[in-house]
Amino acid sequence: MENMKLNIKKLLPLEFKNIPLSQLHDLLEGPTLFHLQGQSEDCVFLSTLLHGNETSGFLAIQEIFDYISNNPKRSILLFIGNTFAAQQGLRHLDGQPDYNRIWKGGALPEHNLAGQVIEYVKQYEIFASVDIHNNTGKNPLYGCVNLLQETYIKLASLFGSHIVYFTEPHNVLSNTFSQFAPSVTIEAGLPGKREGIDAIKEYVKKVVELKSFDEIQIPQGKEVYQSLARILVDESAVIDYQDNQNFDGDISFISNIDERNFHVLPRNTHLGYINDFSKIKVVNSNGEDVTGEYLKKVGGELLTNRMFMPSMFTKEIRVVKSDCLGYINESVEPRFFL
């Protein structure tokens, strides 16, 4: 894959409409950018399957195949990402980089691929950029932004119950695209769930048909949360989710940790039991180790050391070790973006 070339096509093949995800790579033969002509030359950019196991965006696009293929209000640039991993139902293959961590340059073929997408997209007027994702843990539907600007907040406010502002990881697609267009990431819950699929379909149609962002009124009381830090777990750590005080591994998290997402955790909240405290680390957006500010070990317990609101807590051990356990957030005052 040294010269990984982006496929660029003008039509969605009819087979796309009903093809099983496991066969998508055979149809497309790799990451593909579709430029679907609409009634207006300005474009809505859509991205899905940057993570091959996050299926809701793909399933939603299949269900609105006729809508986006038949002269919609705006032209659509649809990027289908990691078809290699999607074929096997994985976030990414062993030896592959995460396809949502390749958008700030680098030496790998996948970095070159991302550069080709950016180069093509920047030729056009982009009304909005929407990167579609799922969570591996239980979360409400929510939108994310990388800039605290009113237009971006409005775009995110159309999806789900919460808005999260984050700057790290900095090398995600939405952060790069936010430099030249209103850009959001939408997090559509657990993969394949009907609620998320229907919300994606409705959202895409709303964005494609918007006359302008002036039409959007941010609902009163809609809070924006800033992602302050990530909780990392060492790749060598032995972990489970049994909340087992006698666990002979490194960390035994509480069994329902993902049910704590978007709920404020008071100081001294029990998160499990830990034998080796060096196996867990909290890193802020500046890359600084702030573990002691947020977590502590008391006896064998893993406790919060201050109040915070988590998001994206996951029980998928592969994701925990390759990415993170979850994020730490706090509310942002509206004056910062309005």
Produce the secondary structure layout.
Elements: E1 7-9, H1 24-28, E2 32-36, E3 43-48, H2 56-63, H3 65-69, E4 75-80, H4 83-86, H5 109-121, E5 126-133, E6 142-145, H6 150-157, E7 162-165, H7 173-177, E8 183-187, H8 194-209, E9 224-233, E10 239-240, E11 251-253, E12 270-274, E13 280-284, H9 291-294, E14 295-298, E15 301-304, E16 309-311, H10 317-322, E17 326-332
Parallel strand pairs: 1-2, 3-4, 3-5, 5-8, 6-7, 7-9, 10-11
Antiparallel strand pairs: 2-4, 6-8, 9-13, 9-17, 11-12, 12-15, 14-15, 16-17
Continuous helix count: 10
Taken as a percent bin, the fraction of beta residues is 15-25%
Helix fraction bin: 10-25%
Show unreliable segments.
none
Anisotropy-based shape: globular
Largest sheet: 12 strands, mixed
- One letter per element, helices H and strands E, the order comes to EHEEHHEHHEEHEHEHEEEEEHEEEHE
In whole angstroms, the N-to-C terminal distance is 45 Å
Oligomer kind = single chain
Radius of gyration using CA atoms only: 20 Å
Class inferred from helices and paired strands = alpha/beta
CATH superfamily of the largest domain, by name, is: Zn peptidases
Number of strands: 17
